[in-house]
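Notes, p. 3: input format for complexes.
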Amino acid sequence: MSLKRPGRFRNSLTFRLTLWYAGIFAVSSIVAFFLFYKLITSVVQEKTDQDLSNQAGQFAAVLGERGIVAVENLALFEAQAAGEKKVFFRLLYPTGQAFSSSNMAYWEDIPIRKEAIGQLLGGAGPVIETVILTTRKDQVRILYAMIGPGVILQVGQSMESYTRIIDAFRGIFLVTMALLIGLATGVGWFMARRAASGVEAITRTAQGISGGTLERRVPVKGRGDEIDQLAMTFNQMLDRIQSLVVEIRQMGDDIAHDLKSPLTRIRGMAEIALTTGKSLTEYETMAASAIEECDRLLEIINTMLMISKTEAGVEKPSRERIDLAGLVREACELFGTTAEDRGLTLSCNVPETCVIAGDVRMIQRLLSNLLDNAIKYTSASGKVAVSLSQIEGQGVALTVKDTGSGISAGDLPRIFERFYRGDRSRSESGTGLGLSLARAIARAHGGDITVESRLGQGSVFTVTLPSSEKDAPA
Ligand code: ADP
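Output follows (474 residues plus adenosine-5'-diphosphate):
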């Protein structure tokens, strides 16, 4: 399955991130341009207005000092000096009628606005306005000011040079912005691809796995970012799945192996009885052996079921208040005879009472598995010591210590696995399920089981359990 189907591109994270990146960049650039544009135009306008006011002031001074003729000459002179296509001056009566002006050939379209004169006469001070000449697409800033009694000056200045600067700025800005948006899209795409490539690698690995092998892992780039963390978590999950699958396969093999031997034996016995059996006694012996083998098979199957249910939480231990000390004493009494028969000393050191919240039958099973092992793997004249103690704030600790064969360092980490049996234990009867069940029971009660052992010197199994209701798991 390809990751890059064309139809999917528009839905892809890369595409959407790039779009967002370019979009946000474009909007911010437009806002920045707009603010800058506003700033420039208002600065230009303020500068023009200032020039016009200065000129009105100059005209008023000349009128006051040298009379109207001097003002008329000044208008002609100033317009010529600045350029007759850049400024004009018109002198008006308060009625709005012009009585003198600079060369107005270029400014024929400029009206004399009665409203502006009315405003001026109303005492509102100089009136400034912008007139747009549609014929030339030119903007003219015009000021009306009283420069003396009964004399109004209308002065106008073309904004053409400023408009050209602003237009050039707009052109440059638009080109630059287009380039920058292009660049931003490229950078956004590159960054989004970089981020998404990690996710794609994980998807590819997951697809590869569903295709068969569990060995594949996602490469971790070592950048320590979220993608790396996702890759590491994904790899850890794969490690767990792989070990579970290996465990399940191993268990399948073990089950097949352990069920095969008794079945082969039953079949062999039946075959011998059929071919060679003559007397009723021989048939009876065969039937008894077959029952024994079947019981063994049933025990294996039942124990397996019990481990699975306990581990999966299906078989939840009941939470009765039970006296663990009493249960340990009973177990010691029960196994006392077996220990004696094998020439072992079994000692039991427990307090008067020790109350825990738990399941009697399960705890009995746990105790018998540990005691059975301790006796089984300890040779004559050895010692098995059982003790129980309360640990402040940590529940209770039950230890089963023996001076038996001990467990090799190679076997030690595996003895709690289902069907695992130490090499030296093959001579003893057993299924390899006892300790798995003991651990499942301890954990289901909110406790655990640990072991310390030295080959040839003996072993110590320690079970810790919560001491009362409040320490027990819900
Ligand atoms: P088994 O039926 O073989 O006893 P268990 O699950 O009870 O199965 O134990 C697993 C293995 O752990 C045993 O085969 C044995 O090698 C080792 N083991 C358990 N208890 C002891 C012990 N007290 N002393 C020495 N080895 C032990």
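Residues 369, 373-374, 377, 402, 404-407, 411, 415, 420-422, 425, 430-436, 459 surround adenosine-5'-diphosphate (CB under 6 Å).
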